[in-house]
From TrEMBL:
PANTHER family: LIPL48, SECRETED PROTEIN. Residues 32-41 have a biased composition (Polar residues). This is T9SS C-terminal target domain-containing protein. It comes from Thermoflavifilum aggregans. Keywords: Signal.
Amino acid sequence: MKQTFLWCLIAVSAIMGACSKKSDNPTPQPPGSTSGDTINIRGTITSNTTWSSNKVYRLRGYVYVDSPAVLTIEAGTKIISNKDSAGVLVIYKGAKIIAQGTKDKPIVFTSAEANPKPGDLGGVVLVGKATGNGNHAVLEGGVDDKHKLFGGNDDHDNSGILRYVRIEYGGKAVNPDDEINGLSLYTVGDGTTIEYIQVIRGLDDAYEFFGGSVNCRYLIAYNSADDDYDMDDGYHGKIQFAISIKDPGFTDKKTGGDLSHNFEVDNTNGSSKPYTATPITHPLLSNFTAIGPNNAANTSPDYGYGMRWRRGAQFELVNSIVIGGQKAGLDLDNDPTVQYYKDGISGFRNSFLHAVNNVTQVDKLNDPSLLSAAELKQLVTGRDGSIIFTNPADIQLTDPFNNAQPNVKPKAGSPALTGAKFDGNFNDSFFQKVNFIGAIGTDDWTQGWAVWNK
């Protein structure tokens, strides 16, 4: 009896050492005595902590990792959340996460419910010290006052490693238009490693980049309700090899005329900061494959565009495939955004484009003579060397619109297997100089760790 009591006391002490004790954020409950027990995690982690693969970790509400703590998560570890207290893991400025899964043993954040639904989990949030333009003054999603601020002046800041990680059923809704995304990246620096990530069936965006310079590879957004790749606040990083796939019948609750897109990219919202605020959002993006609803049966009326570039954003998207956009394929909004495209600062180059309606679209101009949809189409197919397809089947992807088991790998003989170009800003050591257009060539990097039919 005394031995049992002593063991429990030691276990409690070990857990309390990893998390700070606060009246409103109690420490994790102690683990049980057998391998595989579930450990409930609450509060703030202030010292180096390891979550091991022989335990399951349940996030209870907001869990913060504060500087200088490093949270290490072993390959194969499962982190769960219940809908009554949707868990949000926040890696705050100066802290790090080392979550190195493997192809055979991915790290999985998911719902603990018997019938999982979007919003059972909150999401994962990284907050760094890189530069942004201050468009958002504080973090979204109801974080506490001590963790609201973000940003700095170190574009090489390092928030750690995320590799082979799945984030399922996220999207904590706090208020209208105030939600947690699957993976939120607030001014994260390019010292951070993010690759082989899949965000699945979230209530809000799959990925949102709030400023920062973080570079990423091998990203999948699958069946998220709002935008898959949302960028703003002066994000200026690089991304290569990424997939976006939409469930035709699934969008979040819309307010103010919002729509769901594969890409939604802004510089600012125009109210807190002007569209010209610096640093200007200017991502360098290569080898994306973005699949829209393609007018499937029961498509939500809230689906919009394959790409929406607006509010003063600059962008370069190359060697990519964007098909199935519902209301438009390539949409440019607002005068500065349109002028950047017209001047060649922005471009959708050396890529394939298809949409159900309005393959190119220009909206919300103060000067309507600046650029028309027809003139944009000429720039896309002429200067930028992209090809517009009236039938997406001509691109010869294996099964892109099969939402339950999508396959975006090109078939033998597909025009996507050759022709990639890496010039200008893309003649950079970050970008792998592959031959194919789109996210996947002959080798399917999604196999073995990504999941579908959720």
